[in-house]
Amino acid sequence: MSTKIMKMQMDKFPYLSNLKESISNLKIVIELYQKRKKLIGENKDSLSEYEKNEIEIKIFLTNKDLANAFKDLNDRETKFKELYKFYSDNLNEVSISFEDVLSQAKKSKDEKIIEEISKYKSFDFKENYEAKIHLYSTLKKLLSENK
Predict the structure, then answer these.
(1) Is residue 2 part of a domain?
(2) Is residue 94 part of a domain?
(3) How big is the CA angle at 38 (ends 33 and 39), to the nearest 5 degrees?
(4) 92, 133 in Cβ contact below 8 A?
(5) What is the sign of the dihedral through the CA atoms of 85, 87, 93 and 95?
(6) Per-residue DSSP letter, 124
(7) Which residues does 119 contact at the CB level (< 8 Å), separation at least 6?
(8) Which of 107, 103, 130 is nearest to 5 (CA)?
(9) Domain span at residue 81?
(10) Are 117 and 110 contacting, i.e. CB atoms less than 8 angstroms apart?
(11) How many helices (H) and strands (E) does the chain have?
(12) pLDDT of 5 higher than 80
């Protein structure tokens, strides 16, 4: 069962929030690159050959930057959608079963489990659902491997 992450909960997902903000920023950068291309090409007729050449170089570099920005935007949007789905799909289960899985894991002598728990000692799971979901998923997997 999928539980949607509400806007008021986004602060509990710091990486997802930062990713969303970086997507917004990239969209702004893309708009600015596109505006640069439009503006830089205006009034070229009165320029010297050198200045025209410099503009062509700037347009070429802007196109390169624009292509990189579009690729980066696509990668970040894909990552955001994947993580959002993962968190949404697991939020309800984690809310119900986290303490039980953590309790089982703390009883384990498996080095991987002990190491995984120690990685998350400094996290406040009430404030960081991402960390809670990742730890839960990893512990659940490790515990099932040990059966």
Answers:
(1) no
(2) yes
(3) 95
(4) no
(5) negative
(6) -
(7) 135
(8) 130
(9) 12-145
(10) no
(11) 4, 0
(12) no
Answer positive or negative: Cα dihedral of 114, 115, 121, 124.
Answer: negative
Place of tokens 């069962």: 1
Q: Are 79 and 26 in contact (CB under 8 A)?
A: no
Domain contains 56? yes
Supply the angle between the helices 49-107 and 14-40 in degrees, to the nearest 10: 170
Query: Token digits for 127?
Result: 């404030």
Instruction: Using the structure block, give the residue that is written with the tokens 């930062």.
Output: 18
- The pTM (predicted TM-score) of the whole model is 0.81
| 44-87 pLDDT, tens digit each | 888 999 999 999 999 999 999 999 999 999 999 999 999 999 99
Dist. CA 137–CA 116, nearest whole Å: 11
Count of domains forming the chain: 1
